[in-house]
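Lab notebook, design round three. We kept the backbone fixed and only want residue identities now. Task for the bench partner: fill in a sequence for the structure below.
Input structure tokens:
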């Protein structure tokens, strides 16, 4: 990895680090961000090409092992290569999922472009403050530790693979920079990093993972006496969105022939059932796999590609995990009766297959603007249980208590100022008053569409007599100095849907003195 003439790949990685350093100090322009997208695309292409090369090496190891009659002395070499390939595929898939998560949390894609490509905060928060970053670092460290263990166990004679999670002091570009050389791996890689740069950083690490794997596989191939198969060899491949699927989701993948002939017409099957085969943008023949995930646990399927008189078979494993459903609500664990309480219900590990169905007992469910966004309207004081399914499969539920709406506060204004909390009101402004019903502050913050009150009727009682009113704006006739009492008979609340309901007040009287 170090020393000697730099390869084009190493030069490209160096360029990416240079640009990333500049971004830490400068405002990012759209033009620079587009370069990051280009770098990520180039690195992703390199990752794909290196993966194909490594698969060719695996195939050559397997061919030679079988050709020699599977001798016992070569069994550890063969098993080590196969186990390494599985761990590499799993790690690359996790890194692909991490890049897609970066895209999703910053707004997804529109017309093929990353909506939040310029966003600085969300990727940094994801990698530095949430478990994703530490898990990412741990996965990379564990992978390299495994490589070194395999190399030592098999006696391959390779130099120890260095950890990929380098801190600032271990990177040539940063080691003499006092602002950068004190930062750990996650900080130096993802601090103040826009989405496109974060994705490029992950892609760069993917290329290093595959380069490490290639070195170890080449050593195994040399020891077992295998030749590296050329790229023209037909190899069955499965490219999965993720090898981990949640219940209710769908295992989705492309089954294809690497380096296939565009004139070939292969037959592809999954567990004996023929699947559709379509050419992609590069005219590679792709078999479309779609398997509903119905139960938690380890699963597998047998993929076959039949071409002319030859059939290639591969058993693919994937894992279905239990979903994690999160309920986010401004009202915490209690909902307001007869109000539209906003909730966001997400399943972080469902990925792009998240298509929630949401129902509730003792309440109406109003669909919101985004995926998993709803408003829950309790129809009584009974507890509300919200049930969530994904593609028809139940994945979680949560119970919320229901609380009554807090009574609004009645306020009297005279001359634009409160009258009911003062020693006296001047006669000059006291004959024109406004009676207001002010919602509780927490109630208004939590369900703003249900916190609109209006005083409709009542009576004004003063020394000159009693006067009824039917509007919150009142002109008091014949007012003289002395006490004034306001009796509130009618208050209504305007609800989220435009309807109104009558409000019962525990305290109907307010008063003030006129001088």
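Proposed sequence:
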């Amino acid at each position: 990895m170090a020393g000697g003439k730099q390869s084009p790949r190493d030069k490209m990685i160096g360029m990416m680090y240079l640009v990333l350093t500049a971004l830490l100090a400068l405002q990012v322009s759209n033009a620079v961000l587009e370069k990051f997208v280009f770098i990520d695309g180039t690195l992703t292409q390199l990752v794909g090409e290196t993966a194909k090369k490594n698969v060719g090496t695996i195939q050559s190891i397997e061919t030679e092992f079988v050709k020699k009659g599977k001798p016992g002395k070569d069994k550890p070499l063969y098993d080590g290569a196969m186990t390494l390939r599985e761990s590499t595929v799993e790690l690359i898939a996790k890194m692909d999922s991490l890049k897609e998560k970066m895209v999703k949390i910053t707004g997804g894609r529109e017309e093929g472009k990353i909506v939040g490509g310029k966003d600085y905060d969300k990727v940094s928060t994801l990698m530095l403050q949430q478990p994703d970053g530490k898990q990412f670092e741990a996965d990379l460290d564990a992978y390299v530790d495994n490589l070194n263990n395999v190399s030592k166990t098999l006696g391959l004679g390779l130099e120890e693979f260095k950890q990929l999670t380098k801190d600032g002091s271990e990177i040539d570009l940063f080691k003499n920079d006092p602002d950068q050389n004190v930062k750990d791996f996650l900080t130096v890689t993802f601090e103040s990093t826009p989405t496109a740069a974060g994705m490029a950083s992950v892609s760069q690490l993917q290329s290093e993972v595959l380069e490490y794997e290639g070195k170890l596989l080449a050593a195994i191939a040399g020891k077992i006496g295998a030749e590296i198969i050329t790229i023209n060899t037909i190899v069955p491949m499965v490219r999965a969105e993720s090898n981990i699927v949640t219940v209710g989701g769908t295992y989705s993948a492309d089954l294809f022939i690497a380096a296939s002939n565009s004139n070939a017409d292969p037959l592809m099957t999954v567990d004996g059932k023929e699947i559709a085969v379509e050419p992609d943008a590069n005219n590679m023949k792709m078999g479309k796999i779609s398997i509903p995930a119905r139960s938690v646990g380890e699963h597998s399927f047998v993929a076959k590609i039949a071409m002319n008189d030859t059939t290639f078979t591969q058993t693919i494993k994937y894992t279905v995990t239990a979903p994690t459903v999160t309920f986010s609500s401004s009202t915490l664990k209690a909902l307001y009766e007869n109000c539209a309480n906003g909730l966001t219900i997400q399943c972080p590990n469902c990925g792009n297959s998240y298509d929630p169905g949401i129902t509730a007992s003792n309440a109406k469910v109003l669909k919101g603007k985004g995926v998993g966004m709803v408003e829950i309207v309790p129809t009584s004081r009974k507890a509300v249980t919200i049930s969530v399914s994904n593609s028809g499969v139940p994945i979680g539920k949560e119970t919320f208590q229901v609380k009554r709406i807090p009574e609004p506060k009645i306020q009297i204004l005279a001359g634009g100022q409160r009258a009911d909390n003062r020693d006296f009101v001047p006669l000059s402004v006291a004959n024109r008053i406004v009676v207001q019903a002010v919602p509780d502050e927490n109630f208004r913050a939590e369900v703003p569409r249900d916190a609109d009150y209006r005083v409709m009727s009542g009576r004004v009682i003063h020394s000159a007599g009693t006067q009824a009113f039917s509007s919150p704006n009142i002109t008091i006739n014949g007012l003289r100095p002395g006490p004034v009492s306001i009796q509130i008979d009618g208050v209504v609340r305007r609800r989220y849907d435009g309807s109104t309901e009558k409000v019962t007040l525990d305290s109907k009287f307010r008063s003030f003195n006129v001088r």
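Keep this in mind before ordering anything: The chain is about 30% helix and 30% strand.
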